[in-house]
């Protein structure tokens, strides 16, 4: 059956036709739609995955709509204003318990902790996502090259990977963050987390490439004259991608944990310019919040980290089961 | 047998290369990137001029970069990182060594509990797979896996130190005292150790229980387990004599790899509890921009972790008969 005799019936197909896509492109679109429907069906039956997705959606809403959310809360609570994360309330006490104006209290600079908590979701999520893109990109590149080349070049790349795999991430992160120039910017934090987190991805991708390389379809492609770049792009990468996808989601969870740890140690972004849950906890520690009994300041930002990491971990495990059918059978 | 020896030699060579890479990375990170390595020293008023000149001469900092590199390699393999900048009269390695004991006490105690509790939980939940016990254990493990260790440590302080006042919230001993061979001193040590050890243990338990569970579930699907059942062994015999020993194999490799994870937990725990170990020292060194100290800490950690991994690899070669035969 060719694509022209069986017109795609999906809604996506009809949309594709009206905007004038060619038949092969339509067929591809149709297959993609079918694929994603299957994936969604499998995902929907996974309770853990759905719970994770719900948690993540809540956090995304919180990050995107931080401003409006604060306005609504200000209206409900009858506050003087919808406090921003860096707004100073001169009438509030410094490092104070929760009041009707500041539901979670105020920090050392008389800033509203609830507001910082809500706005904090932005950078915490952003750093987690971007750092993951950096480390997955680097890991995929090294893994693909290493697996595809083999031989001496593979050996060299793997010895470098070993360094990053074996040395504790926290020691690597601290050394990089302490020595690299650029102060305590968000970009540097992303770079440091990215550069310390790529090694396991490289290992996974390399192993997959090694097993793919021996398969007949790669040999066939080579026989009809495909060059290296084409084979990697068209045959190897699409086969490696599903494996990386689940891994990427779990890496986001780890990156968020790394950011909070780095910030807590004092190597994260400056809390007077950028607010993350990690540097809120650093501020709390520096202000001896526990000794002062300001528990909301210490407990709530930590809970945020726990829930967002759980969200990504649940979705990651669910994805792993969908894309690695071997696990499903067990 | 020859094959086995060859594998060990190869693993050892790889480990040596890894260490060498760390040394090279150290050299470039600390000397090349921050520009002038003396910048901090020059600006440091606590250090005398004579000391600075001697420092430059001792480390050959007035020499070309390749001469410096050779000198550097020599220094690293004699554990000579120079004197700490914050304590100019003390070699960095002496400070590190005196802090090492606390890290060993903390990680040693926690590791024992981590392995025993983590693996038992893993075995239990794999054995009772799908039961409420399994779900509960996995939920517990995931919850603590998702939790930043430093925050868990803070919660322990909130509840058990400032709240209930059962244990002290900081330091390894009561300030002003030092470790002695007496019952009082030992009690004091334990009293200060409880919360940090709980923090580190619980924070890293998940890795062990999740992996043990997965490994055991894999083994349980093997045919020799069915055979064992068929010849009439009861479930606990199957588990004890056939399943667990085989599931241990991947665990050995992973215990070493997880060492990196444990070190991460130890860093955070030490910082929160002001526990004067290597992790605490590393963080202090970054605050003070004490590069000789930071370099020494980093190198020592790398060395220990690489050697531990090599040890696990060799152990695995001896434990797995398939490797010997191959």
Strand % of chain A is: under 5%
The global form of chain B is flat
Rg over alpha carbons of chain A: 24 Å
Please report the first level of CATH classification, the CATH class of the domain at 93-308 in chain B.
Mainly Alpha
Helix and strand composition category of chain A: mainly alpha
Gyration radius of chain B, to the nearest Å? 24 Å
Would you identify the CATH H-level superfamily of the domain at 121-309 in chain A?
MetI-like
**Helical content band of chain B:** over 70%
Our measurement of the CA-to-CA distance between the termini of chain A, rounded to an integer number of angstroms, reads 36 Å
Tell me the number of helical segments of chain A per DSSP (H or I, 4 or more residues long): 15
Largest interface, Cβ cutoff 8 Å: A-B, 42 and 53 residues
CATH domain topology of the domain at 121-309 in chain A: MetI-like fold
Task: Describe the overall structure.
- The complex is a heterodimer of chains A (330) and B (326).
- Chain A is mostly helical.
- Chain A has helices spanning 11-18, 23-44, 47-64, 66-77, 113-149, 151-166, 169-179, 186-196, 199-213, 216-223, 228-265, 277-286, 289-292, 295-323, 325-329.
- Chain A has a domain at 121-309: Orthogonal Bundle (MetI-like fold).
- Chain B has 326 residues and is mainly alpha-helical.
- Chain B has helices spanning 2-32, 39-43, 49-58, 65-77, 92-127, 132-145, 149-163, 183-220, 223-230, 235-257, 259-273, 278-287, 291-319, 321-325.
- Chain B is flat and about 80 Å long.
- The N and C termini of chain B lie close together (9 Å).
- At the A-B interface, α6, α7, α11 and α14 of A face α1, α6, α7, α11 and α12 of B.
